[in-house]
Each structure stands twice: as structure tokens, then as C-alpha cells.
Amino acid sequence: MTDAALSGPTKPKVDHIQDSYMAQLRRRQMYGGLTLAIFVLLMVSGFMVADGRNAGGFWDGWRQMLDFPADVLSEAWEKRANLPGLLVGYFPALMETINIAAVSTLLGAMAGLILALLSTRGLARWPRLIPVFRRFMDILRAVPEIVIALVLIFILGGGPVPAMIAIALHTAGALGKLYSEVAENADLKPVEGLASTGANWSQRMWLGVLPQIAPNFLSYTLLRFEINIRASAILGFVGAGGIGFELRNAMAWGPGRFDEAAAIFLLLFGAIVFFDQLSSRYRNKLTEGQ
């Protein structure tokens, strides 16, 4: 379009729009620069505070960061003939960790499903209690598994049961939130049709809602199972049983048992990779409707 065509009242309007756009763009760039500067400032100040409170200081110890992995690898290589026997010996501890993750995922998924249906608008059995159930799920998600496990270990003693309960509670809060978001997109026509025939709330949820959202529910549950395997291994460090407990003992003894630590690392790494790939495959099938 030529300048002659833009003459008259149209050209000032176009110039005003262009000036406004450029001013808005400069303002966004300024806000973005300020946000980045504040983020960098907070990161630097936070690192300085953490380094000041760290035992020995980070800058004094980072050069020895690879010494421990090097010692583990060198001792494991020297005793590589013992590796197959160690893998077999620690396999039951790995199965205990996987069992903790499986049971806690199953219990947490069932509790999360109930909480999700009770906190979803349009589906809730008691609509006035929706905020109560949602805040309860927030609390379950907010408290880390390790905190719950430490409290339960103090009450119940060490072992897999505190780890299972701790992971199940956190899983219920996490999956309940995800399930609720999926359930909000469910079609309510089947629910209304079942209600017109006299079906109760449980029947409406079981027959009218779950068939629609079951693939997403199963996908999220498999994803959470991957996370819980890692969580159950970490909780072993605080005395909650499983292969994490064996790894803590092997590392605590230091040189002389590093070959055992290497074997446990291999078992744990292999299990996590295996279940990650397996659950990813089935999650892709579920989300694609196969």
C-alpha cells in the first residue's frame, strides 16, 4: 500500500498503532531484563549463602568431587569377579523396593481416585465439601515422603511399612490432583442418563465416568509408579528398608565394600531404566487409544 493510499485520517491511526506496539515491545523487553537480573541476583546470593554454610566450602571441595566415584569404580573393577554374586545377593532387596513402590502406588491410586471424584465439580457426592477434599490433597502433596517416613519410623520402627505408607499418602495427593483435572473434562451426559434411571453415586461414577477417563488414569498411575520406585530407594537411606538401606550400609563402611555399592548401583539403575521404558511404552499406547 502506497503512502498516498495511507494519507488522510488512516495514516495517523496506523502510526499510532505502530508506536503503541513498539512501546509495548520495549516495555516487555525491559520487564524481561529486570526479571532475568533479579533471577541471577537471587541465584548468586543463594549460592553464596549456601557456600558459606557448607562444611568446608564448595570452592575448596569441588576438585575432590569425582574422587568418590573413582574409588568405587576402581575397587569394583578390582573385585569384578565378585560382581555376579553380589547382583544375585542384592536382588531380593531390589524386589523389596519394587514391592514397596507397587503397593504404595496401588493404595495411593485408589485413594486418589476417590478424592478426585469427591473434589470434581459436577461429579462430587457432596459439592459443599469440594474445598475440603482439595485442601486435603494439597496437604498430602505438600509434605515430602521422607518427612512422613521419618515420623512413621519413629512411631512404627524401621522397615518397609513406613515407606509404603509415606509413599502411598503422597501418591494419593499427587494422583488425586491429576485425576481431578481429567475428570473435569468428562462428558456428563452418561452420568445424567444413569441418574434418570435411579443409579446411585457410586454406580454413576463406575459406569458413567470411569470408562471415559480410564486411559488417562492408567497413564498417570504408571508414571507415578516410576517415580515411586526412585522414592522407595531414597527412603531406604533413612531406614525404610529395600535396596536403599543396603546401599547406605555399603557406602557407610567405605573402602572395602565399594564393590557392593557398585553392584547395588547397577541393580537400581537397571531396574529404573527397565520400568521407565516399560511404563513409557504402555503409557503411549493408552494415550493413543490403542
List keywords for this structure.
290 residues, mainly alpha, single chain
Structure in words:
With 290 residues, the chain is mostly helical. Helices cover 79% and strands 0% of the residues. The chain has helices spanning 10-53, 58-61, 67-78, 83-118, 130-142, 145-156, 160-183, 189-196, 201-235, 243-253, 258-287. The mean pLDDT is 82.
What's the short story on this structure?
The protein has 290 residues and is mainly α. It contains eleven helices and no strands.
Q: Into which percentage range does the β-strand content fall?
A: under 5%
Query: What spatial form do the alpha-carbon principal axes imply?
Result: extended
Structural class by sheet pairing and helices: mainly alpha
> Which spans of ≥5 residues are poorly predicted at pLDDT below 50?
none
Total strand count, please? 0
Q: Roughly how many Å is the radius of gyration?
A: 28 Å
Secondary-structure element series: HHHHHHHHHHH
Distance between the termini: 53 Å
Helical residue percent band = over 70%
Helix tally? 11
- Return the average pLDDT rounded to an integer: 82
Largest sheet: none
